[in-house]
Amino acid sequence: MSVVQAASSLQLCRIMRPDDANIVGNVHGGTILKMIEEAGCIVGTRHCNTQDGDRCMAALVRVEKTEFLFPVFIGEVAHVTAEITYTSTHSLEVQVQVMSENILTGVKKLANKAALWYVPCSLKNVDKIMDVPPIKYASADQEELGRKRYGAQKMERQETKARIEDVVPPPPNPEDPPKGQHTVGFSQSSLIHLVGPSDCTIHNYVHGGVTMKLMDEVAGIVAARHCRTNIVTASVEAINFHRKIIKGCVVTVTGRLTFASNKSMEIEVFVDASSLMEAGKEKYRAVSAFFTYISLDKANKALPVPPLKIDGEEEKRRFEEGNARYLQSKAKRLAEKERQE
Ligand code: COA
């Protein structure tokens, strides 16, 4: 991987290899999320260590809603650009862009754009949050826009806090669900993973990118089980990383369908962590998020997906909430399209 560095920005590039692929052969959405997070972590950690005091590591606390605009193919080069765009007292915003480059034809495409928030944690004491050195803004307008984004995410976080505190695990997948009945239980899936050294930062806590890759993997399995066709990640709603996950923990990542439109599926993914060694320590919910998947035919055109069969009041409520998010996101995309025309 090559690295170009400036004070508060960074460029990485890497050729995409077969081990970056999903089963269809394109680059896995989780791999892209992991690259984005790595770039953000480098630029954020470097910036926060430009001051006196404890050395620190930038911990990922939030990823704003992100859309996968174009697939990246194996053999292409991914160019990842990260820049610090706002600093508050204890957190900083990094905006990241991923461009794919076909090195045979020279064609470049914007594959993904994301905004991430980091908090510097001291290496001496991970619970000590360090101050963030302020950046210089190109203009007063830029600073004001950053302040607005900071205020908006802070407000949204208060609203979603209640959801993360719900530690009740989703019910297990019912055995042998009736064939062709596309219920929530039919596609619900989980994976269990032991957090090892290669998943962790130098603090021995899991990298946010590793968690997002696992989440995308589970969401992909749920989507594929529901429609049995080629599926891709279309977008991820804002994710808040509320609790750290330490090396040696066991994480259970569970995905379940909440909503399906004609051509899209929304999957809620939970990451629950528990200590393997310390008996009696409660399982806790570290992260949860909504992933949207679509199914594509061989010409990369969106295919219809089977309707989701809803059972009971809880599933109905989640379906309606998913429908509201779907309508809101569709209206936003349409408005953006009109603005560009
Ligand atoms: N998104 C954006 N900013 C966040 C945030 C989130 N989800 N959570 C906390 N912050 C910011 C706050 O705004 C504050 O910054 P400010 O003073 O400039 O406004 C700063 O973090 C400290 O907030 P505070 O309320 O004092 O701390 P906390 O109790 O929220 O804990 C962490 C912060 C980082 C210790 C805690 O959220 C954590 O451990 N998260 C997991 C980090 C991690 O392990 N990441 C990898 C994921 S697998």
Automatic annotation (TrEMBL):
Subcellular location(s) of the protein: Cytoplasm
Alphabetical list of SUPFAM superfamilies matching this protein: Thioesterase/thiol ester dehydrase-isomerase
Gene: acot7
Any GO MF annotation of the entry: long-chain fatty acyl-CoA hydrolase activity
Enzyme class (EC, first level): hydrolase
Keyword check for Metal-binding: no
Keywords attached to this entry: Cytoplasm, Hydrolase, Lipid metabolism, Repeat, Serine esterase
Domain HotDog ACOT-type: 6-124, 185-299
Name of the featured protein: palmitoyl-CoA hydrolase
Bias type Basic and acidic residues, positions: 154-166
GO biological process, one term: fatty acid catabolic process
Pfam short name (any one): 4HBT
Lineage: Eukaryota, Metazoa, Chordata, Craniata, Vertebrata
Active site: N22, D216
InterPro entries: Cytosol_ACT (IPR040170), HOTDOG_ACOT (IPR033120), HotDog_dom_sf (IPR029069), Thioestr_dom (IPR006683)
Gene3D superfamilies: Hotdog Thioesterase
GO CC terms of this entry: cytosol
Annotated EC: 3.1.2.2
Disordered as annotated region, ranges: 152-182
